[in-house]
Design brief:
Shape: globular
Number of strands: 10
Low-confidence stretches: none
Number of helices: 10
Mean pLDDT: 89
Order of helices and strands: EEEHEEEHHHHEHEHEEHHH
CATH class of one domain: Alpha Beta
Distance between the termini: 35 Å
Length: 257
């Protein structure tokens, strides 16, 4: 299988007048095309810093990032970023918000607009295209944010705790929707989350990071039966619960060493 992302020996140092802080040390991993990988670990392990580096928003102190065969040297249309907040513009309609990324990239054609409307339809939002963000629930707004991200047809999706502000039922519904959408479109994705259950339910592979400095502690490949299920159903499997206990124990080790 082709490689979509290469993270090569990435180290990140933050320097202030008072001190230099080693945030990430020697992070290396590859992600295959169409693979869904979660980064989990306690606060201070540099998950969001690493995502920002992969997105091209932050240059690494050392190391390299390659996405779709190209060295990352800044933000790229090849990479879509979905955050905890939906960041919809309140004065723009849902349709206009969905097309925002295309506008910024200067690629908003009639065909691309139709593509965005088709995505809204797939997400059950077409009937709300003339509404404004304040008229939608949090879960609906995050679906619009996903449409806005997918409309630009990125090769890699970065998801930074996109469900953490939602209620549990909405979160479970969105997990299923996101996984099914990304599988259907054969998209590669990296999810940052604190939620072990979410990571197991959604991922093909989990990378556990240890803190201070952020470094890879261990990787877990999800069993095929878990990977084949949608997240809601995956949570019911005995393999899911065995894996949760294993990763939870790993987290205990992360906290203490």
């Amino acid at each position: 299988m082709d490689t979509a992302v290469q993270v090569g020996d990435v180290t990140q140092v933050y320097v202030t007048e008072e001190r230099a802080t080693l945030a990430l040390q020697g992070i290396s991993f590859d992600i295959a095309n169409g693979e869904f990988v979660s980064l989990i670990g306690p606060s201070g392990c540099g998950k969001t810093t690493l995502l920002s580096i992969i997105a091209g928003l932050l240059p690494p102190t050392l190391g390299r990032i390659i996405v779709a065969g190209h060295h990352v040297q800044g933000p790229s249309p090849k990479v879509g970023y979905m955050l905890q907040q939906d960041y919809l513009f309140p004065w723009r309609t849902i349709e206009a918000n969905a097309c925002m990324g295309l506008e910024i990239a200067g690629t908003l054609t009639k065909e691309k607009k139709q593509g965005a409307l088709h995505l809204l339809e797939e997400m059950g939002l077409l009937a709300f295209k003339d509404y404004y963000p304040a008229q939608l629930s949090g879960g609906m707004r995050q679906r619009v944010a996903l449409v806005r991200t997918l409309a630009t047809e990125p090769e890699l999706l970065l998801l930074d705790e996109p469900f953490s502000a939602l209620d549990y039922q909405t979160k479970l519904q969105l997990e299923d929707l996101v996984v099914e959408t990304l599988r259907a479109k054969k998209k590669t994705a990296i999810l940052v989350t604190h939620d072990i259950s979410e990571a197991i339910a959604m991922s093909d592979r989990i990378i556990v990071l240890a803190p201070n400095p952020g470094r890879i502690r261990r990787s877990f490949l999800m069993p095929e039966v878990v990977r084949a299920a949608v997240p809601f159903e995956a949570r019911e499997l005995p393999e899911f619960h065995a894996l949760f206990r294993q990763i939870w124990q790993e987290f205990g080790g992360v906290q203490h060493g």
